[in-house]
Structures are given as C-alpha cells and as structure tokens.
Amino acid sequence: MADKDLPTHEEKIGNNSPATSINEEVSNRDWTPEEERKLVWKIDFRVFPMLCFVFGLSLLDRTNISAAYIAGLAEDLRLDIGSRYSIALLVFFIGYAIFELPSNYVIRRIGARWWLSFLIIAWGCCVLGMGFVNDWKALTVLRAFLGVFEAGLFPGSVFIIGSWYRQFETARRVSIFYMASLLASGFGPIFAYALSLIRVGDGMYRSGWRWIFIIEGIVTIVAGLVSPFFLIEFPERVTFLTPRQKHIAITRVRQERENTEVVHPTAKESLKMLFDWKIGVYSIQYFISASSVYSLAFFKPIILRQGMGFDYAKAQLLSSPPYVFAIICSLGMAYLSDKLRIRWPVMCFQALMAIVGLLIILYAGPPGVRYFGLYLAIWGTQANIPGTLAYGQNQTAKPEKKGVVAAAMISVGAAGGICGSTIFRSQDAPMYLPGMWATISMQILHIILTFCMSLYFKRQNKLADEGHRPALEGVEGFRYAP
C-alpha cells in the first residue's frame, strides 16, 4: 500500500473512541517497521555523538581535581591541611543540586542547543580559571560555580533521550550515552598525567597541575562554541527530519502514553509531580549510585598511591583500565536488560559485583588482587548510574513528567556527591575502612530497594491487567517495567 493510501494518525484518532487501547493503536500504525527502524538509526546518529562528547568533558572537568591533587595541587595550595580537599569537592554539589530542576524547567522552553551550549562555555571558563588560582579558597569558589553550570547537562540529556525513545529502548541508550561519556573520563588520568608534564617558564606555570585545568578548560570552551551546530533538539523542534519522519518520531513514543500533544507544565505543576512517593525511591537509588561513583572517582588515585603503594605515574595510568572494563560489561548488561525486558535482576547483580569488588579491595593481600577488585567495584557502581536513570524513566508515563523525574533524581544524586566526597576521610588512610564499609552498606540498600519496588510494580501491572485498578500513572494501557 502506498503512503498516500494509509490512514493518517489524525483519521485514526477520529475513528477510535477515547477508550481505544494502546495495543490497538500500535497495531494500526501508519508506517512500516522498516520505516521506523531506519528512522531510529537516523535519530541515534544525531542524538548521541555530541551529547556523549560534552558529557564526557563534564565528567572530566568535575573529577580532574583528584588528578591535579597528586600532581602537586595539594602542596601548592595546601589542600592537605584538615578538610580543605573535602570542602573543595563538596561545594561543587551544592549548586549542582539546586539548579538541576530549574534547568530542566527552562531547557524545553529555550531549546536544548542554546541552553546547553551556554552552560558548557560557562563551566569551561570555570575550569580554565582554576589553572590560575593561588589560594585554595579561590579554587573552592570556582568549584562552586562549576557545579551551578554543570547542573543542567546530565538531567537535560536524560530528558532529551527519554523524549526520543520508547520504554524498552531507553536502558540501552542511556547506558550507551553514559558509558561513551565515561570513556573520556576513564582516560582522563592518562591525559592528566601527560598534561602535568608541561613546564613553561620559571614561575607558577612550571606547576604541571595548572596545565591540567588550563588545557581541559580551553577544550571545553571550544566544544561549547561549536555545540549549537551539533546538539540535538526535542522532537517537536528539530529540522533535520521530514514532516512524515517527525510525525513518526513523536507518535511512536507517545503511543505508549497518553497523547501526541507537547505539554509544558507550569512551575506549580512540576512541583506537584514531585509529591509522587515513587520519585523519592528512585532518588534514593540514584543517591546510592552517585555517592559510590563519586567516592571512587575522587579517591581512586589516592587509594592506588597510598593504599596500594603505586608511585605517581602508575597511580595515574592504572586509573583508566577499570573504566574500559566497566564500559564493556555495562553495555552488555544494558543490552540484555532491554532484550529480555528485565530491569531489577540486572541492577541487583551489578550492585552485588560492586560489593564483591569493594571487599576484595579491603581484604585481599597482594596489590594485584586488590587492583582487580577495583575493576569489579567500578563496573558495579558505574553501571547502575544509567540503569537507575532508565528505571525511573521507564516507570513514568507522561512525557512532561520525565524531565521532572530525571532532574529530581540527579539533584538528590548531587547530595550523593557530597556524601561521596566526605566519607573517605584523610585520617582513615590508607585503608579508608569507614568509607569503604559505608559504600558497601549503600549497595546492599540499593539491592533491597530495587527488589521491593519491582515486586510492587509487578503487582500493580497484574492488577491493571485484571481490571482491578484504574489506569497506571493516569495513562490507559501503560505498564511499569520492573
């Protein structure tokens, strides 16, 4: 049948009653599976490259302080006195937590390309400025502003991805986005080591740690300047799709939900959405994941050097391979999660791997065995960042609520960053026993919460299938993805 002979989406809606089920609507699509497959590939190649690149820069820019610390920053700015290093770490997360939800409120109104590009340039200037500071207080102020400007990128990116893909397409793609970005962060220590070898003149620019900030700041600013040409917009704003492709892109996602209308909730409506108790559970799950990730990212080089006895060069170079391992394993598990349409077994298994890895780091004898534990710990903690985000997005039916859910989770995750930057105290070196056991305990809690929530979702799906309760999330035909 030719395209012109197919009924339009509007005609189908007009011929169906409001009670028409989602399954019936999907079975009457006005496009072929081949059309949809080609469109999804086209979307993939526009959504991910630049988003992955700039998010990789953001991960690099927020954690490069740990590389600079062992490259001479601690001695030059006396960050090794008292709690100065922990203070410089945690101030980042104050602005990061406060400005995430407002950023996701603004992004769809202004447009992703221009808003995100502004944020990228602004935080790049903060990183560049860190290369010229002579006092730990100035460094701390710049870290605070870095958190303010980085706040909008991650929740905004998850919001964008959630607006383009269907329920069981999300986990794999959020994982691809996060892990591709993590590749840049994973090789950051090697890059930082090379930059720390730069020496210019006889003054302060002979300090290698300054060049870590200067070069990485310049790269970020340049990325922000070219971002408007490469970042993708929300489906209703794009121009690279034909009218028919745009119709398919918007309709295929929203057929799982309520309608095809783009809704911009007011500030009051957004706040009302936050009172859904399930968002609190997702946020706790993400808090745990973020806290574990940040604690390992900030203190991994220190643990490698002080705890395992490696010298400066080896501590920097050995920081990267565990991330490559984590990326490969995480992408494989995310593919399995989407393919088999399961969420909780994968997330619980990854948290279990983190626990095993942390125990090996703590109690194994030889440094080589403890280093293997670092592989498992980084995989388990990093993999549950995109896994938990996809979990929250999958249980949210209405498109306008997805942005609120993502921002709320990542805002609470910023508090996890504060936790992660403080639980490894300098007085606990070299084993950092309290911090390690706090991280292990949180991973156990993640397993319990994920398992219990998934049992609840399965029960709700069963009740809805049997007609014993009204539409889930207020959307007829929607089902949770436990």
TrEMBL record:
| Record's compositionally biased regions (Polar residues) | 14-25
The GO terms describing molecular function are: transmembrane transporter activity
Point to the regions of Basic and acidic residues compositional bias: 1-13
Query: Where is this chain primarily localised?
Result: membrane
Q: Which UniProt keywords apply?
A: Membrane, Transmembrane, Transmembrane helix, Transport
Q: Where in the cell is it found?
A: Membrane
According to its record, how does it sit in the membrane?
Multi-pass membrane protein
- Where are the residues of the annotated region Disordered? 1-29
Q: Where is the Major facilitator superfamily (MFS) profile domain?
A: 47-462
Spell out the GO cellular component terms annotated for this protein, sorted alphabetically and separated by semicolons.
membrane
One Pfam short name:
MFS_1
The UniProt transmembrane annotation reads 47-71, 83-102, 114-133, 145-165, 177-198, 210-232, 279-299, 319-337, 344-365, 404-424, 436-457
Protein name as catalogued: MFS general substrate transporter
Q: Which organism is it from?
A: Aaosphaeria arxii CBS 175.79
